[in-house]
Amino acid sequence: MRKLVILVLIILGGLIVSNLLSLGLWYAGGLDINTMLEGAELSYGKRQLLRVGLMINHIGMFLLPGLIYCVVIMKTDIYQKLKLQPTSGFLQVAMWAGVIFLSYPLLMKITEWNAAVPLPDWMVTSQESNFALLEQTLNMAHISELLTSLVLVGALAAVGEELIFRGIVQNQLTKVWGHPHIAIIVASLIFGGFHMQFERLLPLSFLGLILGYSYYYTKSLWTPIILHFINNGLQVLAYYVAVKQGELPEIDNIPSVALPIVLASLLLTSGLAYLAIRASQSKYEQRP
User: What is the pTM assigned to this prediction?
Assistant: First the structure.
């Protein structure tokens, strides 16, 4: 556990430095954070400036701390420890991606249940600020904004978060406790909490479970990275299409899903997850 404490300290240090850099960039560019959080319409340049600052935040909070931890703490055999060998194949990745897509109705219902839980005022305030930032990020009027958002929400999030939560935290908890399934659950809950979207803690944690098990069974960190990118990237594309049609969906809008659809989602998700696990195990056993 000492190594995880060191990781937390590195992340906190990176968070402080990257926040200072981002705030300095936004201040120099004339971006008023308080006005932005209140939902004011930003110009193209200010929206792009916001995204660059958020990129700096993400790099400082996830990617650089993860790399520093690997070099300073892991030191040797990083490739093997993180399981950076190529993923087990297109079919396995496609099956795990199908697990995520089939789970969407179930995730929506879990989100609905999660949102019904009363939250303390500080959680509500923090979540509202987070949603305001996300709404500004996903307000994309130009193709260049789509590409920038795909880098920020898709690529950087996929690589940085999977490196931290699956590559380091999940692996380290498995090593300490000797129980991979408990480690996956705990790492998924930490993953959900880090997003600071408390009304979506449970669905985000459930998504983390799928990513965690895809990593565990395929024995490759590239699997959850690819899945994470696909999941986030498709959401960014959906928002871009909506904005081009003249409507920016509300981030905190939670659609209600009929119970039969939720049950069908649960059955299909479970069935495909079982097949994905079997296929991943079979593919892994065939490796030399």
Answer: 0.92
